[in-house]
Amino acid sequence: FMMAYVPYRMWRVLRGDRPADGSARGLPWLVVCSVTGGVACAVIIAFGVAAMGFVPYQVLSVIITLNNAVIGTIVAAILLPILYPSRAHSGCSTRTSSTGTNTPPGALRGAA
């Protein structure tokens, strides 16, 4: 959960509504968000595993951070330029409604 939520919130705070489109301009922000997500995931997992006494926290946290950050950045840098144009063309994106929540385009309004 944290590996996805932390980068998502960071991107929204740092970049606003500008999408992650895979451009070279957005690559440094992608790396920052990916590394931060990897750190958030590593802290939680390494703390739990270290608390059980299996592996030292320092060793596991570095391994998990590097694995998540490197793989996440590489996969995103490859897939975003491929997938974003079709997503943008189809109109499949989210926007912020007047209540501040993300709603998909064409969502029913006032339905409770």
Report the strand count: 2
- Calculate Rg over CA atoms: 17 Å
| Number of discrete helical segments | 3
Shape: elongated
Short characterization:
This protein has 112 residues and is mainly alpha-helical. The protein has three helices and two strands. Strands 1-2 form a two-stranded antiparallel ribbon.
Describe the structure.
The chain has helices at residues 2-15, 27-52, 57-90; strands at residues 95-96, 102-103. By secondary structure, the protein is mainly alpha-helical. The protein has a two-stranded antiparallel sheet with strand order 1-2. Helix 1 runs antiparallel to helix 2. The relative contact order is 0.14.
What are the SSEs and their pairings?
Layout: H1 2-15, H2 27-52, H3 57-90, E1 95-96, E2 102-103
Antiparallel strand pairs: 1-2
Features of the shown structure:
112 residues; two-stranded antiparallel sheet; 2 strands; 66% helix
